[in-house]
Amino acid sequence: MNENVIGKEVVDAAVQVHRELGPGLLESVYEVVLARELETRSLEQLSKVHAKQVFTYLKLKGLNLGYLVNFGPT
Fold first, then answer.
1. What is the pLDDT of residues 52-68, one digit of tens each?
2. Residue among 46, 45, 42, 31 at smallest CA distance from 71
3. Would the pLDDT of 34 be above 70?
4. pTM
5. Which of 7, 19, 47, 69 is a good FRET partner for 54, with 20 to 30 A between their CA atoms?
6. Cβ–Cβ < 8 Å for 37, 16
7. Which of 55, 23, 32, 4 is nearest to 12 (CA)?
8. Do the Cβ atoms of 66 and 54 come closer than 8 Å?
9. What percent of the residues of the chain are helix, what percent strand, and what percent coil, each to the nearest 5?
């Protein structure tokens, strides 16, 4: 996936969430639901290897937050 495809997925997911929930809710509600929507469009299952990979990178770099982005087919 390139950044245009990723961007399209994010916008499509945001539009879908807004259509389902409608306007007027707290931003935190949209954030949680959008995160879940994006999760369902990514990996079918997050394996222990994925989590270990992120934690290893965080530890080696001395960071507290990391993202694992899968650019392969789901």
1. 888 898 899 998 877 67
2. 42
3. yes
4. 0.55
5. 7
6. yes
7. 4
8. yes
9. 65, 0, 35
